[in-house]
Amino acid sequence: MSKVVIIMGSKADLDWANKIVDALNGFKIDSECFIASAHKVPLECYNIIKEQEKHNPVFITIAGMSNALSGFSDAQTSCPVIACPPVGDSFAGADIYSSLRMPSGVAPMVILNPKNAALAAAKIIGLNNDEVRTEVSKFQDAQRQKLIEDNGSIRSN
Amino acid sequence: MSKVVIIMGSKADLDWANKIVDALNGFKIDSECFIASAHKVPLECYNIIKEQEKHNPVFITIAGMSNALSGFSDAQTSCPVIACPPVGDSFAGADIYSSLRMPSGVAPMVILNPKNAALAAAKIIGLNNDEVRTEVSKFQDAQRQKLIEDNGSIRSN
Amino acid sequence: MSKVVIIMGSKADLDWANKIVDALNGFKIDSECFIASAHKVPLECYNIIKEQEKHNPVFITIAGMSNALSGFSDAQTSCPVIACPPVGDSFAGADIYSSLRMPSGVAPMVILNPKNAALAAAKIIGLNNDEVRTEVSKFQDAQRQKLIEDNGSIRSN
Amino acid sequence: MSKVVIIMGSKADLDWANKIVDALNGFKIDSECFIASAHKVPLECYNIIKEQEKHNPVFITIAGMSNALSGFSDAQTSCPVIACPPVGDSFAGADIYSSLRMPSGVAPMVILNPKNAALAAAKIIGLNNDEVRTEVSKFQDAQRQKLIEDNGSIRSN
Amino acid sequence: MSKVVIIMGSKADLDWANKIVDALNGFKIDSECFIASAHKVPLECYNIIKEQEKHNPVFITIAGMSNALSGFSDAQTSCPVIACPPVGDSFAGADIYSSLRMPSGVAPMVILNPKNAALAAAKIIGLNNDEVRTEVSKFQDAQRQKLIEDNGSIRSN
Amino acid sequence: MSKVVIIMGSKADLDWANKIVDALNGFKIDSECFIASAHKVPLECYNIIKEQEKHNPVFITIAGMSNALSGFSDAQTSCPVIACPPVGDSFAGADIYSSLRMPSGVAPMVILNPKNAALAAAKIIGLNNDEVRTEVSKFQDAQRQKLIEDNGSIRSN
Amino acid sequence: MSKVVIIMGSKADLDWANKIVDALNGFKIDSECFIASAHKVPLECYNIIKEQEKHNPVFITIAGMSNALSGFSDAQTSCPVIACPPVGDSFAGADIYSSLRMPSGVAPMVILNPKNAALAAAKIIGLNNDEVRTEVSKFQDAQRQKLIEDNGSIRSN
Amino acid sequence: MSKVVIIMGSKADLDWANKIVDALNGFKIDSECFIASAHKVPLECYNIIKEQEKHNPVFITIAGMSNALSGFSDAQTSCPVIACPPVGDSFAGADIYSSLRMPSGVAPMVILNPKNAALAAAKIIGLNNDEVRTEVSKFQDAQRQKLIEDNGSIRSN
To answer: How confident is the prediction for chain D on average, in pLDDT?
Structure first.
């Protein structure tokens, strides 16, 4: 079964990464975290990607401000890459465009919310893993059930 | 092997969808297209998703303006969903936020460029399909080779 | 007399909904609240709309982030729908465009302020209900009177 | 039965107004057009509103650039007001905020697309007019049918 | 000598107005404040403008959110109008466009900072009033002197 | 009587300046045009301002892109300065902020439309010149009359 | 004397690069162009930088859309890097933030206009090269002279 | 060896300037600070630039809001100018465009982060100063080492 490889551009992104790790655990998916900046240590970053690629993972890349890491990673591997950038408030959050505006042939998939990034990775892995897929379905059923109960609770008052 | 199911919100999106279909063909991936609006025909849209979900596809959803389709689709299936909205120029392209700003538990993955959406789908399918994965690698190698040749060509003048 | 049916996408929107309910009470208009996500429980959402539509209401829909609910609701009913999304600060409030940028044939009417949404609903109901219309006129007269008094108060100093 | 009163801020808005008139005709709704600027001829504008208000209409206001007309109109009548501003491309369409950012107690309802403004007006009138309501339902059914046929047409190839 | 007439759209703008009044006092210019909303009490607003216009003032208009007051005032008087809107942070301050985007023939002059609005009014009045003009020059000299002293202070360390 | 001194940052702004000159002629106001960049020839620019200031003019400054000229001019004269920048479409017209975002004590008054800049200058000059003031009133009356006729014309059909 | 090394991310940027080359020629500065994408061929890009760095150049990097190249280059060399991205109109030119929003320790210097990028490089080289510095001064004098002549030309009419 | 000359537009920018001074000290580069507004004291500002230019410095200019200082400085000297504006949050940080949108022939180089501005200045000076260049390389090596250690630290847990 594919695991998830999380690469973050700086140790400052560790809390963000751990939100993804926790959510992946909820889907019974193993993950491994790395710190590597595409700007500052591209050779080390390249080596991590090529080494991890052998294990057939889904990559999740985390880089704030100008996000070079997600495109760099995606272009160096045939595995899927989810970009989950911790976008701040500066310039109305315009950093998101550095994750979205990829040239032709570079295709990281962008998700804003770290829990949602884990869910998307789970759906990808679930395509070929029934246990994970069942966890995804259970998660989706639970949130549907929660909404129906919430509706009942405000209407029974 | 997973195929790709493309759902577009209007027949006006057919050209955009065909760009994805063509690129998927290049990766030797079958695809099937549907038209269904989450706003106007949600029950039909739901039925398409549930029927196609049985075949374990990667979904790609196409909806311009306010994109309800991608979140709707993602929340109704345990399969992965790539949102590839044809974002126009109005309001500085702010329609993209209707694809990105998903609530917790709804996780379409956003890609702007239709060829890149096909590449991302190929990477997902390639996780468990060597033939597709090889096509992805060949594509990536070719674009690397193209860049190296381009560099040579301007430098030999 | 028409009542107002408020549908919110999540229980987290309850405070926002209650501001509308309170303002409707001020216009002597009954309202009923429901929780239903167009993303997560579209069938339940559809059923609420079709059931409530029988009572000839004005709908007010409340959904933050990417607003699928308002367009979904509007397209499923011949009754008028007012979208009153609780737009946050992220991305300079660009979520508003998911309420505004509707395709042809989908026509929720957008109002930012929840009290104003109640006022607009009262004006609609007042078209055929003299009691409500009188309440609207009294409200408008009172705010005019307040401005004239405020002007007097700063000028008598 | 309520008619629709369209007030536009300048004769330059006449084409935009006529799109609304035509769509209202499709719903069998009469309309009447006026030109009056809240900036330049506020007394004339006020008189039009007060005179037309006697006939219990739905107002639709059309004003480009900084939209004073919609708020001015809404605050002077107990009838509902739909703002349908012809927003241009300058400043990324930021003119829309002059229609949306109303003070407390001023409640025009904003719709971008002129045909959709007509549809919304028809829904309001249809609350108490079965003929118009039937026209709305027929319109909605037709667009659903069109989507289903479009889906069929691309899938039978 | 011209005085300044300040019209604010709501009593909530009184602190903003007082900043202008205080700065005008510094230039030895009298001012008078009024509260009148162009949305809610246009007839009263009109009467204030026409009555005050007789005294040949410079108008300063203050209105937050969608600013109808500045254009309304400017179009009703042959005296100059300075718009000094208290622009908030919502939607990245896009309210400013409701002050700027005036139709042809409506010409309020926009200044963001209330003290600067007072300075601009002083410069206008100073064109024909030597006392005020001298105050403006003294103010400008003082801020130049302050900068030169500041430069000296950091350089003598 | 005050004339208007127009300073433009580049000869490329001459068409824009001429729109202002023509509109000033309509108000029977003389004007004189200069080319001087606050970036490139600040000493020449300073000398023009100090020389012209002796004649007690209203200044209108024209500078595209990053507008240094308007603030530079305003801070060097006790006469009023209207900034009328020819804002382009790049970056959603964000150049306007270089005209608006002035530090404390620098107070150019911003107007987008060149004809409106001329009108505002006429209103300023009209405060102490009855002929110009009469021209402003005639202009305003004419545009009111035009609107009333336009309203009549579409209603007599 | 330092030369300028221009690295562009794609052959599509060649016209943009040539504008810089031509302007550098005007300052009598040699330049050399390379094509290398930090996303797609980072190792080749790294090698170009390290090889060229030996010659002590000023680097100018050209990359549209999400600009990884400029930060990548800057972090791999102790030589100065000027980022001159060909920013398009999509999303109101928000691509510029991928050039500006650099993490701590990565310091490309951003210039929008390609001729200005050449001028900035010339100023850097001119710090230690009198011939280039003289060319810069001549260029600046010429543009000052041009402005003074332009001012004369419109004033002699 | 070139020193760095820092010009700030107001004493309020002193903390920002000191961040640059401290970082320059880390690269063993001397600096000198001046306060001078291009708006308010352009002649003094001009004199500072011309006097300091004799010492062959790199200039760093600091001006918030509408930044006239950087373009003014750049156009008055043949030495390189780095603009490091303290951009605030108002209007989504749109002040940055007053630093970026320079006319042809005016070429300040923009950097957002004050430490990065110091690093860029060090790289420029390092082109002809081995001691400074060595400091730059040591700084870059240290941040690479830090990243590698950070990666090791989270992976050894």
So the answer is: 97
* CA F148/CA B24 separation, integer angstroms: 61
**First and final C-alpha spacing in chain D:** 47
| Nearest of B66, H148, F46, G93 to residue C96 by alpha carbon | B66
Within chain C, which residues score under 70 in pLDDT? 157
- In terms of residue numbers, what domain contains A68? 4-155
Contact by Cβ (8 Å): A86, A62:
yes
CA dist., res. F153 & res. D11, Å (int): 10
CA gap D6, D20 in Å, rounded: 9
Decide: B123 and A78 in contact? Cβ < 8 Å: yes
Which amino acid does the sequence have at B43? L
Tokens for C63?
């959904």
Mean pLDDT of chain G: 97
pLDDT tens digits, one per residue of D62-85? 999 999 999 999 999 999 999 999
Q: Do F40 and G155 touch (CB under 8 A)?
A: no
* CATH number (domain holding residue A124): 3.40.50.1970
% chain B with pLDDT above 90: 96
What distance in Å separates the CA atoms of residue D17 and residue F154, rounded to the nearest whole number?
11
3-state secondary structure of A110: strand
CA nearest neighbour of H56 among G40, B48, G130: G130
d(CA C43, CA C41): 6
Query: Could you say which of H104, H111, H124 has the minimum Cβ distance to residue G113?
Result: H104
**ipTM exceeds 0.95:** yes
CA distance linking residue G132 with residue G138, whole number of Å:
10
- Both tokens of residue D44? 């004339």
Q: Give G95-130 as a DSSP string.
A: THHHHH-PPTT---EE-SSHHHHHHHHHHHHHTT-H
3-state secondary structure of D117: helix
Verify whether the Cβ–Cβ distance G147 to F89 is below 8 Å.
no
Q: Which chains touch F (3 or more CB pairs under 8 A)?
A: D, E, G, H
Ranges in chain D, pLDDT < 70:
157
Q: Say if the Cβ atoms of D89 and F93 lie within 8 Å.
A: no
Residue F118: CB atoms within 10 Å: 28
What is the reported pTM? Answer: 0.98
What's the CA gap between A38 and A65, in Å, rounded?
A: 13
Contact yes or no for D93 and B91 at CB 8 A: yes
Residues of B in contact with D154 (CB under 8 A): 11, 14, 33-35
In angstroms, the Cα distances linking C70 to C64, C66, F134, G67 are 10, 10, 53, 37
How many C-beta atoms lie closer than 10 Å to residue D152's C-beta? 10
Look at residue F44 and tell me whether its pLDDT is greater than 70. Answer: yes
Q: Strand F81-83 relative to strand D58-62: parallel, antiparallel, unpaired?
A: unpaired
Q: Given a cut of 90, is residue G20 above it in pLDDT? A: yes
Q: 3-state DSSP: chain E helix, strand, coil percent, rounded to 5?
A: 55, 15, 35
Chain A CB contacts of H155 below 8 Å? 33-34
pLDDT cut 90: percent of chain A above it: 96
CA distances E47 to C141, D103, H149, Å, are: 18, 22, 74
C79 and chain D: CB distance < 8 Å anywhere? Answer: yes
What is the rounded CA–CA span in Å between residue B76 and residue B45? Answer: 10
Please indicate if the annotation marks C10 as binding a ligand: yes
When pLDDT is cut at 50, 70 and 90, the band that residue B157 belongs to is: low
Q: How many domains does chain D have?
A: 1
| Owner of token pair 């420029």 | H124
Q: How confident is the model at residue H157 (pLDDT cuts 50, 70, 90)?
A: low
| Residues linked to residue C4 through DSSP beta bridges, in sequence order | C31, C58
Residue with tokens 């966890």: A135
In the predicted structure, residue G157 carries a pLDDT above the cut 80: no
**Given a cut of 80, is residue A1 above it in pLDDT?**
no
- Is G148 near chain F, with CB under 8 Å? yes
